[in-house]
Amino acid sequence: MSSTAAVAAHGAHAEHHALGFWRTYIFSQDHKMIGKQFLFMALFMMAIGGLMAMLMRWELAFPETQVPGFQWVPEPFMYEGAIPPNTYNAMFTMHATIMIFFVVIPILVGCFGNFLIPLMIGAREMAFPKLNMLSFWVGAVAGVIMLSSFFVPGGSAASGWTSYAPLSALAIYTGVDWGQNLWCISIIVLGASSLMGSINYITTIVNMRTQGLYFFRLPLVIWSLFITAILMLLALPMLTTALALLLFDRIGGTHFFLPSGGGEPLLWQHLFWFFGQPEIYVMILPAMGIVSDIIATFSRKPIFGYRTMAYAMVAIAVLAWTEWGQHMLQSGMDPALGAGFMFATMIVAVPAALVTFNWLGTLYKGNIRYTAAMMNALAFVAMFVIGGMSGIWMASAPVNMYLHSTYFVVAHIHYVLFGGSLFGIFAGITYWYPKMFGRMMNETLGKIHFWITFVTFNCTFFPMYILGMAGHMRRIYNPQQYDFLKPIIPINEFISISSFVLGAAQFLFLANIVWSCFKGAKAAENPWRANTLEWTTPSPPPHGNWPGTAPIVYRGPYEFSSPEVAEDYLPQSLLLKRSKAAAD
Amino acid sequence: MLEYLYFPHDISTFGPQVDWLFELIFWIVIVVWAVVMIAMLVLMIRYRARPGRKAQYIEGNSRLEIIWTMATAAILLAVAFMSRSTWADIKEHGPPGQVFYLVNGKQFNWEFTYPGPDGKFGTKHDLTIENELHVPVNKVVRIDLTSKDVIHSFFVPNLRLKQDVVPGHVIQVWFEATETGQYEIACAELCGFGHSGMKADLIVQSQEDFDKWLKDTYAHPPAPPAPAAPATPPQGASPK
Q1: To the nearest whole number, what is the mean pLDDT of chain A?
Q2: How deeply is B57 buried, as exposed, middle or buried, from its count of CB atoms within 10 A (0-12, 13-18, 19+)?
Q3: Average pLDDT of B21-38?
Q4: What sign results for the dihedral spanned by CA atoms A532, A537, A541, A543?
Q5: Under DSSP, is residue B94 helix (H, G, I), strand (E, B) or coil?
Q6: Where along chain A do its domains lie?
Q7: pLDDT digits over A517-575, tens only?
Q8: Do B193 and A85 touch (CB under 8 A)?
Q9: Above 50 in pLDDT, residue A498?
């Protein structure tokens, strides 16, 4: 590294520092700022989605009673605080839609993808910075469209986040008119945003890795984001197609999904789940990558079976395209076809189990440091095991016949998406917060948040498996209407009370983010003593990411406790005398 | 064991097969989960950070990974093959029917049509009743399911039977109830604002009671159900 080159590189980027407020914070083309924008948008949406979950839990535990403190909500959304069925349907529809499309994916892919990819591959920017900015703002427009649907006559979409036709295809079936149209439009727009992001990620990872950073030296989080971007690129057109057809049915008078005109209701399900199954892996793979990095760092050990981890994630992504029918086993699809989907679904558990095994192997003979990030990452592993294994029941077609569309499914998806993805997100935010904001998050508050969340999460979602075994249908407004569900009324009440604590505890996390932003301890360049490239630049990194020349990579990302050095970590970009000889 | 897990009492002939598979997977999952969690906790405690110690540099172990992968694959494929035969028994073939019904799902009621002595639907002998399904015990009942509007799902927890009811399709299911009594039928697929209340009763009777019920009902047929009109949301919740 010559000092003149460093000065030249610094000089080339110095002009960016003169950008005004708007170009720096609002219409920013800096991948780090765009990542933070996605994060804050998603946290805002999470509060809305979470509030709806709380209202739903009130309704399920204390059906058709007034929600305390909600008397101010005007009719027809609520009647003096009591939730009518239409509003209930709208709430679970929007809860899922918001949490999936506007919280989990924007944080995992939008925030971590944008923030981490250039920093971890030694690039100064994304391949297409303007496209990146456009991606965020198109996504923000989609969010505004989605939120505006609450305020149109008839309220927001109320046919479930899966929006099965024909229920979703004609306004008379739900009483929702423009709410559903806006739902379609919003997700089409969001799809465009995600496509721009995917193209950007793929291009950046393929072309802009720094010198020496071969694919098999990439951190697993980058592997996972790369695979995720490919999945999104291939899956989203299917959803956009389906949504466009649905919109034609709704406002153009066509009959793609309406049998009265020769349409086929099951076509919607095939299109939706052909997108939806890869989408599910989009929501878990980046969390797997994040957790792999964190577990290796805090175990002070190389990740167990680095290559098998990468191959397992690729295998999951390939199998994702063969499984969509697992959601349709009772749909009237040919049962013989359903049997094929059952085998495909069972097989995907094999790479998932392999990944879990490798996380445990990483702990073996480690020197484990229990930071808040590590605790969230380990919770991810434990919850993912429960969520993943409960999938075996539903994969078995005859058992699925009983459990399909019950709370067993609700428990399963929340163990994977909350216990999995969201704990991965907590871990990831805590871990990379110092690099994002230049300050450490408060460890004590982080651990308090972790323990309350971990306990109440399990108290909330584990009993839902029992509800499912009792046959409790999902999406019903009042379970007390059924005699066979009478024995589980106390369980429903217990779940709701736990969920209120769980919801309230999330404000600790938000408070920690805000408080630490101003008052947290100043972060050093490499506070966790990690190996990857983002830790070789100041926290937060300047424009262009490295003040001097971009780092050069000499080894893989997980060389912890390497016998080559006295310290228990060995950064990817550190030039050892012996490695230099090998590199030459 | 399943009654401790709040499973509704099983009254169908294929229910025990479904429950057996559930229990099989239950024990596999419990054992694997316990082993994984104990291993994880032991590792977490045994290898917690202590000053002056360094972790051991281990990159992986291909043999262990292969063993683990093969074991998982073998267990899962075994479960899949066992499920396959039960699935075929229930949904692909099954015993010939002795009693036939036509079921129409509509927002938010179930219409059960009994073909009458001629055994044919669409004749004057048809008997259509809302929200009550009378069947004789120990007889194979075959039901043609269809819908007048949106997708519903015919769910009888005590029979372990669930089948989506799709407009434009006629899907046949079968069951054989082994105990008399009254059981609940629910809709398990979101079908609109009245989804939660879309319930009916399954009344399993002895052959004599069933015949008597048929005779009485034919003597005093219920008023035919109102023609299917598009359901409107309740007052106040309707769009302007």
Answers
A1: 93
A2: middle
A3: 96
A4: negative
A5: coil
A6: 26-583
A7: 999 999 999 999 999 999 999 999 998 999 989 999 999 999 999 999 998 999 999 99
A8: yes
A9: yes
What ipTM does this complex have? 0.92
Q: Which residue of B has its CA nearest to A374?
A: B44
Query: Looking at beta carbons, which residues of chain A come within 8 Å of B160?
Result: 401-402
Residues in Cβ contact with B224 at an 8 Å cutoff, skipping those fewer than 6 apart = B128
**pLDDT at residue A471 tops 50:** yes
CB burial class (10 A; 0-12, 13-18, 19+) of residue A402? buried
Q: How many CB pairs under 8 A join A and B?
A: 317
Which residues of chain B have a CB within 8 Å of the CB of A365? 47, 55-56, 58
- CB-CB neighbors (< 8 A) of B168 in chain A: 259, 263-265
| Portion of chain A with pLDDT greater than 90, in percent | 91
Which member of A263, A300, A389 has the closest CB to residue B32?
Answer: A389
Of B49, B194, B195, the CB nearest to A369: B49
pLDDT at site B226: 57
Phi/psi of residue B185, nearest 5 degrees: -110, 130
Instruction: Using CB atoms, pick whichever of A75, A166, A364 lies closest to residue B236.
Output: A75
A29 touches chain B (CB under 8 A): no
Domains for chain B: give ranges and CATH numbers: 2-47+62-92 (1.10.287.90), 99-219 (2.60.40.420)
Note the pLDDT of residue B125: 84
Q: Which residue has the tokens 């939660």?
A: B196
Contacts of B7 in chain A (CB under 8 A): 469-471
Does domain A26-583 fall into CATH 1.20.1250.20?
no
Whether A164 and chain B come into contact, CB under 8 Å, resolves to yes
Distance from CA of A168 to the nearest CA of B (A): 9
The mean pLDDT value for A318-323 works out to 94
3-state secondary structure of A101: helix
